[in-house]
Amino acid sequence: MKTVIGNWKMNVGTRESVALARGVLLALRGKKAIPETVVCPPFTALAEVRKIVARTHVALGAQDLFWEDSGAYTGEISARMLAEHGVSHVIVGHSERRALFETDEMAGKKAAAALVAGLTPVICVGETAVERKAESQAVVVKRQLVAALSPLKAKGKDRVLVAYEPVWAIGTGEPATPNDAVAMHAFIRGFIAESFPSLTKRAQVLYGGSVDGTNAYAFLREKEVDGVLVGGASVKMKEFGDVLSAACEVIEKQGV
Ligand code: PEP
């Protein structure tokens, strides 16, 4: 199974989110084989987008959460509140949040809270340009994975998505090469198998960073790439439609 996630960030309001959600359904209409598709609008648009994607193959995701269930945490949104809104996936530890608001440990608490509430965490990891230049990407990603996965107690049907998102590729128009992505995905998979064996079968590894309609196929056709997390291109309907079509084509050709 291939997964395509659109992270709409703070780029769209409710009206545009509803239009995008309709566009996603249209792009998938009539396709024989479709990827697991998740759209992540801003919090304020969740309720309206939910109405559009309810009872379809498109799932609703959120862009963040807080780890406590309830209480005096002004401005925060808990996993339980998201679940109440029909949310099934939640992005955790996005590099834009790590840069401004949160630590590796906070990402771990958020991922654990997501699982407890029955949500699938999409845990983002990835090195900066400076770290890549110093060839420390493996060390950085390992540190982020340990912090994010150690608090998890996955059980039953719980799933965890890990998105390898090199920071230097996010929003720059300069994606990693598929070969770079494959190498890091293999590393991530190997590390999870060795250090978190109970998560091996539950964890899928997605690539994110300047994925668009023209390069999505090259990533998605790789066996090591379970899917893509798309930012900028996911709010351009034609681009995102092309990403979804690329995923459909790979699934049809490879039967995955
Ligand atoms: C992201 O924000 O997760 C992302 C991958 O952004 P972009 O596709 O714009 O690089």
TrEMBL record:
This is Triosephosphate isomerase. Pfam families: TIM. Homodimer. Its main location: cytoplasm. It is found in: Cytoplasm. The keyword Acyltransferase does not apply. The keyword Isomerase applies. It catalyses: D-glyceraldehyde 3-phosphate = dihydroxyacetone phosphate. Substrate binds at N7, W8, K9, G171, S210, G231, G232. It comes from Candidatus Uhrbacteria bacterium RIFCSPHIGHO2_01_FULL_63_20.
